[in-house]
Description:
This is Indolepyruvate ferredoxin oxidoreductase beta subunit. GO terms for molecular function: oxidoreductase activity, acting on the aldehyde or oxo group of donors. Keywords: Oxidoreductase, Pyruvate. It comes from Dethiosulfatibacter aminovorans DSM 17477. The protein has about 190 residues and is α/β, with parallel strands linked by helices. It has a single domain, classed as 3-Layer(aba) Sandwich (Pyruvate-ferredoxin Oxidoreductase, domain 3). Helix content is about 40%, strand content about 25%. It is built from eight helices and six strands. It has a six-stranded mixed beta sheet with strand order 2-3-1-4-5-6, with helices on both faces. A hairpin with an 8-residue loop joins strand 2 and strand 3 (about 45-55). Helix 1 runs parallel beside helix 6 and helix 6 packs across helix 8. It starts with a strand and ends with a helix.
Amino acid sequence: MTNSVLLVGVGGQGTILASKLLTTGLMESGYDVKMSEIHGMSQRGGSVSSQVRYGKKVDSPVIEHGGADILVSFEKMEALRWMDYLKKGGKAVVNDYSIESMPIKNGSCVYPEGINEELEKVADAKIFNAAKMAEALGNPKVMNIILLGALVNNMGITDVDWEKVISENVKPQFVDINLEAFKIGMEM
């Protein structure tokens, strides 16, 4: 059986790093893993997505509409944008955080209201503000690792040495704060 995780966010949020850490951990757990990423206009604050598929044998990294077991969203409007990729009854881990796009900033659109309620209608959604938690740790950039910890906890993949995975894949000066962020996410 193949499992599928879709991670989505906005450029600069660390979506790709979280995906790579997840992929590394899954491989260390003995799974065959395939990962695909789409950067789009990520350097300009555009949408970023990463598809991670794992199991005994995985043929393709691509997740079809309605094929994701879990959706992880680093920004709540992105969760809504990608929700049709989630399986019926799938799980969602969502950062209750908003980033205004250019059309919203220039006043030609309005950031939609009621996103969290809409997400809860269609998914088993765990919604929390990882950005606020990261700020409380003293580094807003570790929001992605808090979300990774929540994802790993939700997936039940605790047999992996995540401390080793993180330590080997982030810059040495940021290892401690990332490990702390991961632990906070695991408690979600």
